[in-house]
């Protein structure tokens, strides 16, 4: 029998694969952009997001197990999925459009969705809500960084 954590993890993994739809020219565009001087931890960003996605999937698992298969739980799973899609869309959409402003908007949208999701999940499980805190802490940093890059690279705003 397939366990709920396997389905949740599998869906999260499949959605995360969508981030790989970027071309070498897209990567080249992004690599040439100026970054804020304080951005000394860029190499750690993939690890940070991996931890955040694991925490998000674990949070979704906890919520699912509280009331599996109910309409409310399915709606909440839809919010988790929406949050992951918006988060994953940040890179390919920003790269493809070559627009840091679009990246800032997508990052801000992810923060808003994560706040809503956390508030909804809090009434179901404090542990599930706590697992969303890394997203709530990191997302504003990433969005702010992209916004700062808009000012450093006005030609790519």
TrEMBL record:
Bilayer-spanning residue ranges: 6-23, 43-62, 74-93, 105-138
Subcellular compartments: Membrane
Membrane topology: Multi-pass membrane protein
Gene3D superfamilies: TspO/MBR protein (1.20.1260.100)
Pfam families reported for this sequence: TspO_MBR
Keyword line: Membrane, Transmembrane, Transmembrane helix
Primary location group: membrane
Signal sequence residues: none
Domain of life of the native organism: Bacteria
InterPro entries: TspO/MBR-related_sf, TspO_MBR
Stored PANTHER family: PERIPHERAL-TYPE BENZODIAZEPINE RECEPTOR, TRANSLOCATOR PROTEIN
Family according to the record: Belongs to the TspO/BZRP family.
The protein's name in its UniProt record: TspO/MBR family protein
Species of provenance: Anabaena azotica FACHB-119
Top-level taxonomy: Bacteria, Bacillati, Cyanobacteriota, Cyanophyceae, Nostocales
